Amino acid sequence: MENVKLMNMCRIVDPNTKKVLVQERVKSWQGIAFPGGKIEIGESIVPSVKREVYEETGLKLNSVKICGVKDWYDRKEKERQLIILFTSDDYSGDIIPETSEGKVYWMAETELKKTKLADDFDRLLEVFENEKINEMVYEDNKNKNEKLRWDLKLY
Questions:
Q1: CA 2 to chain CA centroid, nearest Å
Q2: Short-list 5, 6, 11, 2, CA closest to 87
Q3: pLDDT in tens, 55-84
Q4: What is the pLDDT of residue 66?
Q5: What pLDDT digit, counting tens, does each position of 123-155 carry?
Q6: Residue 129: how many CB atoms within 10 A of its CB?
Q7: What is the Cα Rg of the chain in Å?
Q8: What does the alpha-carbon distance between residue 82 and residue 85 come to, in Å, rounded to a whole number?
Q9: Residue 112 binned pLDDT confidence (cut-offs 50, 70, 90)
Q10: What DSSP state is assigned to residue 119?
């Protein structure tokens, strides 16, 4: 049986302005992305994304919808990492402008690709935006050069 590390991420849309909530990440995976994080051991998936969004943004999600996944299997580490992607326009509360994870603010979705996005987040946006794409995966091609080791594919 393989080891699996579970994570989540949520695209939050303001139903009035149609802007999306972004996080200017300063820790790992630096750049603009949507809020999310690790699913704790024993934690259910939907409550985990609600917890992460609240901790990182101050917003309480009332409902979410799964819209896809991002994953990869690391042969060297013998571990799969799976990020479950959600979307929501049903929330309450006020955003916290900055946390230890980075700044949080609303942005027009059309402006996203003009900013400093986290690595490959432009490709991950395709999963959030296109109902025909369900998965972004990095496939390990076994190249010894770490920079050439991963093939990014959308399914």
A1: 22
A2: 11
A3: 999 999 999 999 999 999 988 889 999 999
A4: 98
A5: 999 999 999 999 999 998 888 898 898 999 999
A6: 12
A7: 16
A8: 10
A9: very high
A10: T
Does the model's pTM come out above 0.85? yes
Beta strands in 27-78 (DSSP E): 31-33, 36-38, 60-74
Written as six digits, the tokens of 104 are 């949080």
| 109: its two tokens | 């979705």
Pairing mode, if any, of strands 36-38 and 3-12? antiparallel
- Rounded Cα distance between 36 and 78, Å, is 24
**Cα 33 to the center of its chain, rounded Å:** 7
Q: How far is the C-alpha of 87 from the C-alpha of 85, rounded, in Å?
A: 7
Per-residue confidence (pLDDT) for residue 138, from 0 to 100: 95
At residue 149, the 3 state secondary structure works out as: coil
Q: What is the pLDDT of residue 76?
A: 83
Closest CA relative to residue 74, chosen from 153, 154, 146:
146
Q: For the chain, count helices (H), then strands (E).
A: 2, 10
